[in-house]
């Protein structure tokens, strides 16, 4: 379903003073349908870069990235939205719109995809309930805690039932209670067949999952194990 | 689909009112362009009308001596009618001439009274119309070389051609000036509208980046900016139409006197919907073109 093939990403040295940075170094792996994969690694190991390459937000310096058999970076720009609609993303930096409420931030993904008003007003409250934010639906991002915002982002990533959910550090701001709730939710979604990719540096949750773990170090894939553990 | 259209227009409207100052400026300048173009269109109608009126009037009046018999006059009339340049010859007898004279001065007792004293002082006449304003010379030279020359008291040679030429020249000048000014205004309008949309794109840049990442199509992103341009155009057109109507109705009575009885408001009303359609088209066209240019420059796809 999803394949990185000898993928290398070097960020350009186009800023004054900064030098070229190898974020991913010849990384190859494949994720099949129904899998739940954790991607672990220290800060700066290249986890978010994987996501950016998958969404065609950045181009690989070398190698290729496939989604459902298609080379992501060969898709013409005006058509990329088809790919992105199939991937629900929990962005590490949230990417919530400050001028929209929690409800609107979620609803608007459905608007983008052309859902009808009735579907939107039916689905959004439901998803807000799932992430435990029914009472925050009219709050703006600035009025929410880090964990609340994170849960809005999770709700936004899953509302349109994408084929893949890429959760980039989705529990970084959550307390243990909400962390385990979100993990239960992700596992539940995975049970319905959605591929989950979980990028995190939370050792405990990875070890409790007992699912496949891919370990990155300085942009290199150093370990890829079924029922893996967080070892660094 | 309808939901999407409604949302697009709504977002466009929000963009529009968010920077109200520049939006008002945009409407104003597009409106001015529309106003000028409408004036040009109306002016063309007025000029056509005036030229028509003048051409309809008698070109040459041949006054005959009052001793000439009617038969002789009719023979001359037939001869003149045979000149290829002549479109029409009309015989006005003394009695008819008097009737017309009385009709014209019926509100002037002094003239009517003195008329009663002198009897009918008028001469029979042949009114000659040429096909074209520049063909009088042919008629005049025919008369001069004609044996009937002796029958003629005097020839009143109405010089219409210079008047028509002047109107044509003035219209052409106004038109050329108007077109140049319209073009200049249109360019300024596009620049201002372009800036309006550019600002909106700039304000929405964060939202656009996120929209892209969650799978918005290009047209979904562009839609509101196109709508914003169109909204500016519609407001400008409605505003221009309104102000134009008011101006026409205030000025029309004065201009009617000036333009030999032409009712400008009549011309305007009879063409109102066509004009309004053109106004809308120009407004929306300018707004949308500006949006497209702004998006080409500032909204990478
Ligand atoms: N746009 C960029 N330009 C230059 N360098 C970048 C850019 N984005 C990321 N990097 C560098 O690439 C490396 C990998 O970054 P990445 O964001 O993938 O790390 P990460 O594993 O997600 O880290 P974290 O756990 O802190 O989120 C880092 O060293 C980072 O500084
Ligand atoms: Mg990261």
How would you characterize this protein structure?
Chain A has seven helices and ten strands. Chain A has 232 residues and is of the alpha/beta class. In chain A, β7, α6 and β8 (195-200) form a beta-alpha-beta unit. In chain A, α4 crosses α5 (146-158). The radius of gyration of chain A is 18 Å and the shape is globular. Chain A starts with a strand and ends in a 7-residue tail after the last strand. The model of chain A has no long low-confidence stretch (mean pLDDT 91). Chain B is elongated, with a radius of gyration of 31 Å. Chain B folds into two domains: 2-54 and 167-298, no CATH class; 59-160, 2-Layer Sandwich (Alpha-Beta Plaits), CATH 3.30.70.3040. Chain B has eleven helices and four strands; from the N terminus they run ααβαβααβαβααααα. Chain B has a four-stranded antiparallel β-sheet with strand order 2-3-1-4. In chain B, 31% of the residues are buried. Chains A and B meet through α2 and α3 of A and α1 and α8 of B. The structure holds adenosine-5'-triphosphate and magnesium ion. Magnesium ion binds at residues 47-48, 92, 168 of chain A.
- Proportion of residues in extended strands of chain B: 5-15%
Distance between the terminal alpha carbons of chain B, to the nearest Å?
Answer: 23 Å
Largest sheet of chain B: 4 strands, antiparallel
CATH topological fold name of chain A? Rossmann fold
Instruction: Tell me the structural class of chain B.
Output: alpha+beta
**Order of SSEs of chain B, N→C?**
HHEHEHHEHEHHHHH
Spatial gap, N to C terminus of chain A: 28 Å
> Which two chains touch over the largest interface?
A-B, 22 and 17 residues
Strand content of chain A: 25-35%
User: Could you give the order of the helices and strands of chain A?
Assistant: EEEHEEHEHHHEHEHEE
Give the overall average pLDDT of chain B: 84
* Structural class designation of chain A: alpha/beta
Q: How many domains would you count in the coordinates of chain B?
A: 2
Spatial order of strands in the largest sheet of chain B: 2-3-1-4
Number of strands of chain B: 4
Number of domains of chain A: 1
């Amino acid at each position: 379903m999803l394949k990185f093939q000898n993928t290398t990403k070097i960020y350009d040295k186009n800023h004054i003073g900064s030098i070229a940075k190898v974020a991913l170094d010849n990384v190859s792996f494949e994720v099949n349908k129904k899998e739940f994969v954790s991607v672990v690694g220290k800060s700066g190991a290249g986890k978010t870069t994987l996501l950016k390459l998958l969404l065609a937000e950045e181009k690989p310096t070398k190698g290729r990235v496939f989604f459902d058999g298609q080379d992501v970076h060969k898709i013409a720009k005006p058509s990329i939205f088809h790919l992105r609609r199939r991937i629900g993303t929990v962005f590490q930096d949230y990417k919530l719109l400050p001028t929209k409420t929690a409800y609107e931030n979620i609803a608007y993904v459905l608007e983008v995809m052309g859902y009808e008003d009735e579907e939107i007003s039916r689905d959004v409250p439901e998803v807000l309930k799932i992430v435990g934010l029914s009472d925050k639906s009219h709050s703006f991002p600035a009025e929410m805690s880090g964990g609340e915002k994170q849960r809005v982002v999770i709700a936004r990533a899953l509302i349109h039932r994408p084929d893949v959910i890429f959760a980039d550090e989705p529990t970084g701001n959550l307390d243990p209670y909400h962390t385990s709730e979100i993990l239960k939710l992700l596992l539940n979604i995975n049970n319905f067949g959605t591929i989950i990719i979980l990028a995190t540096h939370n050792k405990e949750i990875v070890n409790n999952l007992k699912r496949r773990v891919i370990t990155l170090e300085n942009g290199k894939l150093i370990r890829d194990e079924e029922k893996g553990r967080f070892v660094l | 689909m309808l939901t999407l259209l409604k949302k697009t227009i709504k977002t466009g409207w929000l963009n529009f009112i968010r920077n109200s100052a520049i939006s008002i400026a945009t409407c104003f300048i597009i409106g001015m362009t529309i106003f000028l173009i409408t004036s040009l269109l109306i002016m063309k109608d007025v000029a056509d009308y005036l030229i028509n009126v003048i051409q309809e009037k008698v070109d040459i009046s041949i006054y005959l001596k009052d001793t000439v018999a009617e038969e002789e006059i009719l023979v001359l009339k037939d001869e003149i009618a045979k000149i290829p340049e002549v479109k029409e010859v009309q015989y006005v007898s003394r009695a008819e001439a008097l009737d017309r004279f009385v009709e014209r001065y019926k509100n002037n007792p002094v003239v009517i009274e003195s008329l009663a004293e002198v009897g009918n002082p008028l001469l029979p006449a042949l009114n000659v119309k040429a096909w074209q304003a520049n063909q009088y010379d042919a008629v005049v030279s025919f008369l001069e070389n004609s044996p009937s020359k002796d029958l003629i008291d005097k020839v009143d040679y109405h010089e219409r051609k210079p008047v028509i030429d002047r109107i044509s020249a003035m219209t052409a000048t106004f038109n050329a000036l108007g077109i140049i000014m319209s073009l200049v205004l249109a360019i300024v309008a596009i620049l201002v509208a372009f800036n309006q949309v550019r600002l909106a794109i700039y304000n929405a840049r964060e939202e656009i980046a996120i929209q892209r990442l969650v799978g918005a199509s290009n047209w979904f992103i562009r839609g509101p900016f196109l709508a914003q341009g169109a909204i500016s155009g519609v407001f400008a057109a409605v505003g221009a139409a309104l102000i134009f109507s008011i101006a026409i109705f205030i000025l029309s009575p004065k201009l009617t006197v000036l333009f030999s009885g032409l009712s400008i408001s009549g011309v305007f009303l009879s063409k109102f919907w066509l004009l309004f359609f053109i106004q809308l088209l120009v407004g929306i066209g300018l707004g949308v073109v500006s949006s497209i240019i702004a998006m080409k420059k500032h909204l990478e796809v």
